[in-house]
Amino acid sequence: MPSNAHNLSRREFLRHGTTVAAGAAAASFLAGSHRVLGANDELVIAVIGLRGRGNGLLNDFAGIQGVRVGALCDCDENVLNKRAEEFERKYGYKPKTEYDLRKVYEDKSIDAVVIGMPNHWHALATIWAVQGGKHVYVEKPCSHNIWEGRKMVEAARKYDRIVQVGFQNRSIKNVRAAMEFLHSGKLGRIYMARGLCFKPRDSFGQFPDSAVPKGVHWDLWIGPADWYPFNEGKFHYNWHWHWNTGNGDTGNQGPHQFDVARWGLGKTEHPVRINSHGGYYKFQDVCSQETPNTQTSLFEYADGTLLEFGTRGLYTNAEDGITIGNLFYGTEGWMHLNGSTWKTYMGRKNEPGPSSTSYEPAADPMNLTGAGGGNHVENFVAAVKAGKREMLTCDIEVGFMSTCLPHLANIAYRLGRQVIFDGKKEKFVGDPEADKMLTRKYRPPFVVPANI
User: Fold this and answer.
1) CA–CA distance, 257 with 69 (Å, rounded to integer)
2) CA distance 162 to 175
3) What angle do CA 417, 308, 345 make, to 5 degrees?
4) What is the mean pLDDT of residues 383-402?
5) Long-range contacts: 292-297, Cβ < 8 Å, 24+?
6) Pairing state of beta strands 190-198 and 306-312?
7) Per-residue H/E/C for 138-196
8) Is the CB of residue 175 less than 8 Å from the CB of residue 165?
9) pLDDT at position 313
10) What digits encode the pLDDT tens for the residues 396-433?
């Protein structure tokens, strides 16, 4: 990366606020602009990206006692104004509104940011936030590619900020109990996991390029991605299905089941061999989608452990009644995990074993965060207030390791061949063609810096 790319990114960031020295000095200044919270202090958050998942997170956080929403941010002012009005009616107060996330990061009253933006923004938005002294809750997948995901981990550690990835299964009591059971050895050695993402999706059509709608800050929306003219078919939600901004369903719904699969296998390292095959079937002549709607991926770890993943976006049967979920296979039995409901079957005769209705975990691992569907965001709030990263159920490094799996699958799919990965170096073995796909060419000033 050219040396001036990082400086340009920082200058652009700082141009919107107080003028300070550029480069490392600027980053140091920004990282120092945060307050230390106590358990009883109000946590002031900003939510960035408000249309879909971000709006759900906004309401999750707003409902937590001791949390105040200080700012709302979206580069589509039509969405921003709508959410601000809805929020004031529902909660009785009006947060600040900004269309540029950099203005949020300059605001010293904001303790933490919640990132519900499209995938291509997750890494840079997180890095800028921690450099600005903010804690971060970022949606899955945590990054758009593997290289920038590692930079997120480096930034969180350097600036000593708490960063949680939105793999909510990590905070569901029954799922945690299932993982405890898998790791207990009662199913023998878990030699294979299977993740399922069977989610039928119809064509969204093809659209001509057109004028940018009023209120949409298109250059900001594109951010780090390659620039292209406004196109409705590549904008709200449909960005998922184009490689420039999304990662397909393997990298959309899939990351949740990839995370559970890796967790159940007890793997803290990357796989070695990756294969992935499939295609975009049925709608290829009537839809602009680039990512596959059918994809079968296979990962092999150094010890021979296997992870299979099935992505199906057309019409299909379930597997043992599961369309979104996981299956685990051990030398003494197997597990069915569907949402937070799990069952086990033992031996050749498939005799019913412990299940989510009969198994009592050793302890409630979520006792610091309360109960209910908001467990994951409550876990983040509790960790921030306590100033203890170790309280997180999905720290950025945990989330990054799981996020790498769909990225590796997509690289193998796009190359149409097996790839061999060196997990320690986070590079492919003798494969410069594959290595190019570990990162992207960033569009100044929206550059993920090589030196955090």
Assistant:
1) 30
2) 23
3) 160
4) 97
5) 292/248, 292/250, 292/413, 293/201, 293/249, 295/248, 295/249, 295/250, 295/409, 295/413, 297/250, 297/409, 297/412, 297/413
6) parallel
7) ECCCCCCCHHHHHHHHHHHHHCCCCEEECCHHHHCHHHHHHHHHHHCCCCCCEEEEEEE
8) no
9) 97
10) 999 999 999 999 999 999 999 999 999 999 999 999 99
- Answer yes or no: is pLDDT of 29 > 80: no
Give residue-wise pLDDT tens across range 257-301: 999 999 999 999 999 999 999 999 999 999 999 999 999 999 999
Q: Is the pTM of this model over 0.85?
A: yes
Is the pLDDT score of 11 beyond 70?
Answer: no
pLDDT at 377 over 60: yes
Q: What is the dihedral of CA 239, 242, 245, 250, to 10 degrees?
A: 90
Model confidence at 41, pLDDT cuts 50, 70, 90, reads: confident
Q: Which domains does the chain have, with CATH numbers?
A: 3-168+377-395 (3.40.50.720), 171-361+402-438 (3.30.360.10)
Rounded average pLDDT over 49-64: 95
